[in-house]
Write a structure and sequence with these properties.
Shape of chain A: globular
Strand content of chain B: over 45%
Helix content of chain A: under 10%
Shape of chain B: globular
Number of helices of chain A: 0
Structural class of chain A: mainly beta
Number of strands of chain B: 11
Radius of gyration of chain A: 14 Å
Number of strands of chain A: 12
Largest interface: A-B, 28 and 23 residues
Structural class of chain B: mainly beta
Largest sheet of chain B: 7 strands, mixed
Strand content of chain A: over 45%
Oligomer: heterodimer
Distance between the termini of chain B: 36 Å
Distance between the termini of chain A: 41 Å
Radius of gyration of chain B: 13 Å
Order of helices and strands of chain A: EEEEEEEEEEEE
Helix content of chain B: under 10%
Chain lengths: 116, 115
């Protein structure tokens, strides 16, 4: 069975600085998708970024980028120029790419604090 | 605006009572999901549905029931058999259920408190 591990329950960053959130996963599959979701205090889950396992290039969305290391099964999220609005819970998630891969598996989350 | 609505935002019930949480989407998505979120834990899948009139159990289905009579609606009933029902419940949908990169879209959630 696949698992997703986020080893940092909490992280803190100074406004305008850069922070990296860690995520590791375990799978025997070769085709899968990885996601980072953000859950702000409103608790509305929002997709931040996604990565297809078959793509070698790391995904980037404005100030958010990932470091995808397939062999190491690592999928970290880098937030550049941190803003107060980035303060939230961040969840790493895995989804199988095979037919029948309906389930998205979530990590326990990392709470990010942003200091002004 | 397209999206997912969940109602109510907060729900209080007495122990022993069944309660139904509403989830409606107007995104024309085939697949819908129910998750439970507890402090310090990620989201855990309760039930999912890939198509109307079909649904499957997730990891923690005991004490819960669902129906999918319409594409837009996927209500969740928390029964008295659920031993620890107090939690935050999230409904989600996606274009398709399996083998795709499509992300899930989430509703705003319902906080259920049972005393």
């Amino acid at each position: 069975a696949q698992t997703v591990t986020q080893s940092q329950p909490e992280m803190s960053v100074q406004e305008a600085e850069t922070v990296t959130l860690s995520c590791t996963y375990d799978t025997s599959e070769s085709d899968y998708y990885l996601f980072w979701y953000k859950q702000p205090p409103s608790r509305q889950m929002i997709l931040v970024i996604r990565q297809e396992a078959y793509k070698q290039q790391n995904a980037t969305e404005n100030r958010f980028s990932v470091n995808f290391q397939k062999a190491a099964k690592s999928f970290s999220l880098k937030i550049s120029d941190s803003q107060l609005g980035d303060a939230a819970m961040y969840f790493c998630a895995y989804r199988s790419g095979y037919t029948g891969g309906f389930k998205t598996i979530f990590g326990a989350g990392t709470r990010l604090f942003v200091k002004a | 605006d397209g999206g997912i609505t969940q109602s109510p935002k907060y729900l209080f019930r007495k122990e022993g009572q069944n309660v139904t949480l509403s989830c409606e989407q107007n995104l024309n998505h085939d697949a819908m999901y129910w998750y439970r979120q507890d402090p310090g834990q990620g989201l855990r899948l309760i039930y999912y549905s890939q198509i109307v009139n079909d649904f499957q159990k997730g990891d923690i289905a005991e004490g819960y029931s669902v129906s999918r009579e319409k594409k837009e609606s996927f209500p969740l009933t928390v029964t008295s058999a659920q031993k620890n029902p107090t939690a935050f419940y999230l409904c989600a949908s996606s274009i398709r259920a399996s083998g795709s990169s499509y992300e899930q879209y989430f509703g705003p959630g319902t906080r259920l408190t049972v005393t």
